[in-house]
Amino acid sequence: MANIYTITYPKNENVFIHVMAGHFISANNHINYYVGTSDIKHNLNVSTQAAKLMAEYYSINGIDVDTVLCLYETQALGAYLAQELSNSTMMAPNPDQTVFVVGSEYDAAGNLIFRDNLRRMIYGKNVVVLISCITSGRTVERAIESVRYYGGKVAGISSVFSMQSKISGVPVSSLFTTDDIPGYISYPSHDCPLCQKGVAVDAISNGYGYSKI
Predict the structure, then answer these.
(1) List of residues 6+ apart from 124 with CB closer than 8 A
(2) Whose CB has fewer CB within 10 Å in the chain, the N or C terminal residue?
(3) Could you give the CA distance from residue 77 to residue 17 in angstroms, rounded to a whole number?
């Protein structure tokens, strides 16, 4: 695999992702770049600053948020985002101080479920779906369906990196996009030109990271 290189956020050089070119298999497709978001999810200093940047979208657009639904190990980032959303700003001088942070749990069929003790944090709430990377958007689509099934309203989608600008009619607010990674492409698994050319798969990747083959 090629060397890993770093891309920093234009407005804050302390917020960054790692990118690696190659042939990767994800849950729904094949991709030619792996986007590493571990520092934003697990490094305290990077994560808190990323959360501030993410919160700006909701503050500027006057979007109320009651709950942050965290997918793929984004609970720490979600907690910092919730803290930022509950802080007073010029646009929201007296915000509701309660912002819930909910992790993800799936049943055997892969459906996102909420236990009885957590349903009150979804039902009737304005929910932000938080995820590290979005390619096809199918994971987020399923999360949106689950939130709506449990009586919640999806107020927004926040991601570290996204190939999509809108999913199920909801705009995606992302720190990094394909504009930051020229040439980033996602292929259906049955129509991958890298496979057709006989290019070996470098690793299997998902929201948790990657595993070399």
Answers:
(1) 151, 152, 153
(2) C
(3) 14
